[in-house]
Amino acid sequence: MDLRRLPGLCFLILCLGPSFSLGCKWIQDGEYKHKSKFSLTLLKDMGEKDVSGDVNIIIPEELYKLHSKSEIENKILILHTALGQILKLYKKSEKRTTWDKDQLNHFLSLIHRQSYELNRCISFLQMTREGCAGCKELKQYFKNLKYFLRSQKYSTLAWEIIRKKVKDNLIRMDLLASHVKNPPAI
């Protein structure tokens, strides 16, 4: 090998290194899982235990199944998009729910922290949000939840149904994140 090309090769590897990363260090080190588990616990504890009622807005399960085998970068984008949508959904919840305000604020700060850290991974991996396969469907799902809340005049029951839907999403997101931490063998 020509040694004169070695510095150029090293420079190329340094520049492209983040693009070839195996994922997001914050997820791989278990921080996402820890924060996700704690936010799920808070969400479970702050609501009513026996809520009857549901809404016919189905979680895009195919999206989560599809992405368990997709590129790591796309999984991170899906997680980040979902967290951002959860934050938007809960934006007005403090004034309109009977939930414990401290628990709610703690939950929202954990969701915000997860979103912030995933955004750092997105920046580090130099990903573009435009190429996110499935993010459009995910945003539409959360838009439908907002419409449901509005149609129910932000009632306590409607918020409880939303809380259950978000809980289900967090569980699926946790499973998706485990595929970033330990990518499936091919």
Q: Explain this structure to me?
A:
It is found in: Secreted. This is IFNe2. The protein has 186 residues and is mostly helical. The protein has one domain (23-45, 55-179): Growth Hormone, Chain: A. Helix content is 68%, strand content 0%. It contains nine helices and no strands. Residues 8-22 have low confidence and may be disordered.
Please report the first level of CATH classification, the CATH class: Mainly Alpha
Distance N terminus to C terminus? 33 Å
Specify the number of helices: 9
| Subunit organisation of the chains | single chain
Largest sheet: none
What are the secondary-structure elements, in order, as H or E? HHHHHHHHH
Strand content: under 5%
Low-confidence stretches: 8-22
Helix content: 55-70%
Number of self-contained structural domains:
1
Please state the average pLDDT score: 80
- Give the strand tally: 0
CATH fold-level name: Growth Hormone, Chain: A
Shape: globular
Q: What is the gyration radius calculated from CA atoms? A: 19 Å
* Gross CATH architecture: Up-down Bundle
